C-alpha cells in the first residue's frame, strides 16, 4: 500500500509534466486493497489512454473521444490488474497514437521529466511518442509498469528519450483486445519498466492467448539456451546513416564493444531494404488508419457538432472540429492510397515491399542471434527545435524502429548512457527473431549491467 501512496504522491507532484490525462487514485487504492486480500503485492500501473478500462474514459488524447467511457477492460490491462496492478491513471499520448512527440494531443503536451522545470511553460525536452505519458510515468516513479502501444516505435522512442526500458514483444504475444487500433497488423501492446528483468516480469503477466483476439499467441518462456559467448550479434550497416549523431554512434559502438567483452561475436550484416521502410510504412499504414478512423462519425459515440443540417454536415463538421491536423492528413493519405485507381500502384505495392522487408530481417536471424542498432538518431530535442524543423526529426527517428514492426519481431530500447554535451539519455536497441522475447531481454539485462 505504501508503494501505491508514494506513486500517487509522485503523480500529484509531477502534474506539470502532464503525463496523465485521467487520474484514478481512488481506483488504485481500491485495487491495492483487493490485491492485498488476494495475498499479492500491489504495484502502480499506468495505462496508455488508447486502452479500455471499464468505467474510466478512454480518450486517445482526442476531442473526438474526450467523454467516451468503455464498458469493458482490455485483456492485457485486466491481466495486470489481476496480478496486483493498481491503475494510477491513463497515460497522455499523441492523438490516436499518431506521432513521436506526444506534443499535439487535445489535452496538451507531455513534458519530459528531464526538462528545465523553471522554464516548463516556455520550452521543454520532448518526451517522445506516441506513448509519452506512460514513459514519463515510469521515469518519475508514478508507475513501476506502464503499458503502451508500439506501431512503429511508439514505446521504444519515448523509452529512449526518457531513459527507461521500452520492450516491444513479438506481434501477437500480448492481446490487442481492448486496444483502440491504429494499424491492426502492426500494433503491439508493449511494456515500460526500469529494467529488462521488470519488462519480462510484466510481459509474462500480460502475455498469452486470448479468445477475444484471433491473432494472439503464446510466448516462449524457456530460459536462455545459449551462453552469451555462443551468441552472434549483427550490426546492420544501413543504420549508420546521415541522421545518426556522433554521440549516438559512439554509444552504439560502445555497446558492441561491451558485448564483445562479454564473449559474444559481433559482425556486420546488411539490410538494404531498410531504406524503403519509412515510405512503405506510411503507405501501408495509411490504409488501416483511414479504415479505422471511419468509425468516428459522431453518431454512436464521440464528439458531435451542432452543425447537423444534414448527415454529411454532421459527419464532416464533427470530424473537422475534433481531429487534429496530423490525424486528418493521415486519413486523407490513406483514402488516397485506397482509391480504386491508386490501390495497386501504392497500397498493394507497399504490402509487397513490407513483406520483402520482413523476410530480409527474418533471413538475417538465420545468420545472427540478435541485431544491435540505435533506438533514435540522438538525444531528445527541445520542443522548440522539433517544431522549428516542422517535426522532420520524427521521421529520422522512425527509421530505426519501424522495420521491427513490419517483421513482427521483439525489440527493446536500453538506456545505456548519457550525452556528454546535454546529459540527456542515449539508448541502443536489441532486436531478436520471432518469439525470442526472453533472449532479447536477458541479453539486454546483461548489456545494461556491464555498461
Automatic annotation (TrEMBL):
EC number: 6.3.5.7
Molecular-function annotations in GO: ATP binding; glutaminyl-tRNA synthase (glutamine-hydrolyzing) activity
Listed InterPro entries: Amidase, Amidase_dom, AS_sf, GatA
Active site (catalytic residues): 48 (charge relay system), 130 (charge relay system), 154 (acyl-ester intermediate)
Reactions catalysed, as given in the entry: L-glutamyl-tRNA(Gln) + L-glutamine + ATP + H2O = L-glutaminyl-tRNA(Gln) + L-glutamate + ADP + phosphate + H(+)
Recorded family membership: Belongs to the amidase family. GatA subfamily.
Name the UniProt record assigns to this protein: Glutamyl-tRNA(Gln) amidotransferase subunit A, mitochondrial
Organism this protein belongs to: Mesorhabditis belari
